[in-house]
């Protein structure tokens, strides 16, 4: 099957499906280097020449908010330096122990941590503040990002969890290459649609994180007890007993569609997210090679107009229960349409 691709900033060709690295270091115990490296290599090796794998890491992807994720990435490229040119590396920063901080001091300090942790093994292709900090004006955030970019610390500027209005304002200050927002059959709000449309108009790629609903849209979980002890999702709103039970109606209905297509439920969800636009890049996370390859193949799957109508009917019939994170009253630092 021909590999579908997306063009970033008019010049970089990446696979239709990207690879999120958060859970490799964001859980306890962390994934071993051997397993993590095979997961990364597997995806890159599956791509044709000239197509890069969009790798998504973070300066705070660790239980202690430290640079463990960056250090894993550095070890990977130290061991496999020939893969540096085959990857498009996106790094998010600006979240610490006290939440979102996109002040100039914080972003510059985070950038220093990123570069020091990567140890020159891989250039940062895309740098993104992890959220829009409501305490810092957008113009000030962009001024810092533009300054860091002009100093040659990374190649492209991205934004995360931004509204359509904010994306347009930021792009008017300096071109935005990628906007990262959550998109899945569980997360497809009106503002999501506006961001997708605005990005299309402006020539900005969309990195659609959590297309598998933080794992609930893989069909592998039936109750909160299926989550590992200490998993952060245990306190997420949609994984609470009553909400999860209600949301499984969506999972079961979508599973029936996937089974008729002889594909995995996760692949159906990735394909559904991908069809929202030729500039949309589903961003699932994976810590093992088999899952990476399965996710990648999801980007090459077509969904018929009849299947799209059926999925739309499912989502209209069964409303998602619960918030994306902890609950509406506790989402200020994690879910911001800034």
From TrEMBL:
Domain annotation NADP-dependent oxidoreductase: ranges? 18-315
From the UniProt record, which GO molecular function terms apply?
Answer: oxidoreductase activity
- Give a Pfam family name: Aldo_ket_red
List GO terms (cellular component aspect).
cytoplasm
- Note the superkingdom of the native organism: Eukaryota
Instruction: Tell me the keywords, alphabetical order.
Output: Oxidoreductase
Q: Which InterPro entries match?
A: Aldo-Keto_reductase, NAD(P)_OxRdtase_dom_sf, NADP_OxRdtase_dom
PANTHER family named among the record's database cross-references = AFLATOXIN B1 ALDEHYDE REDUCTASE, PYRIDOXAL REDUCTASE-RELATED
**What protein name is recorded for this chain?**
Aldo/keto reductase
């Amino acid at each position: 099957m021909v590999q579908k691709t997306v063009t970033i900033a008019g010049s970089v060709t990446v696979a239709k499906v990207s690879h999120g690295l958060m859970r490799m270091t964001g859980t306890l115990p962390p994934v071993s280097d051997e397993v993590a490296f095979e997961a990364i290599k597997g995806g890159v090796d599956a791509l044709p020449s000239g197509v890069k794998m969009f790798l998504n890491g973070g300066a705070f992807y660790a239980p202690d908010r430290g640079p463990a994720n960056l250090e894993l990435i550095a070890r990977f490229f130290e061991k496999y330096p020939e893969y540096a040119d085959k990857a498009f590396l996106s790094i998010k920063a600006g979240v610490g122990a006290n939440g979102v901080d996109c002040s100039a001091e914080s972003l510059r300090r985070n950038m220093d941590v990123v570069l020091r942790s990567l140890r020159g093994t891989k250039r940062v292709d895309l740098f993104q503040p992890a959220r829009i900090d409501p305490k810092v004006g957008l113009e000030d955030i962009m001024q810092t990002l533009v300054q860091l970019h002009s100093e040659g610390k990374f190649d492209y500027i991205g934004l995360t969890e931004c509204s359509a209005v904010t994306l347009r304002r930021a792009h008017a200050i300096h071109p935005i290459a990628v906007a990262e927002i959550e998109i899945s059959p569980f997360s497809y709000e009106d503002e999501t649609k506006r961001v997708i449309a605005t990005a299309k108009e402006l020539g900005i790629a969309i990195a659609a994180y959590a297309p598998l609903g933080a794992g609930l849209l893989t069909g592998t979980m039936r109750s909160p007890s299926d989550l590992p002890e200490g998993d952060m999702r245990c306190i997420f709103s949609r994984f609470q007993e009553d909400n999860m039970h209600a949301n499984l109606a969506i999972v079961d209905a979508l599973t029936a569609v996937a089974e008729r297509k002889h594909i995995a439920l996760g692949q159906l969800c990735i394909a559904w997210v991908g069809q929202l636009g030729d500039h949309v890049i589903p961003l699932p996370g994976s810590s093992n090679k088999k899952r990476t390859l399965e996710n990648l193949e999801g980007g090459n799957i077509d969904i018929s107009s009849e299947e799209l109508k059926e999925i739309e009917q499912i989502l209209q019939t069964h409303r998602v229960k619960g918030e994306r994170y902890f609950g509406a009253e506790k989402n200020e630092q994690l879910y911001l349409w800034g």
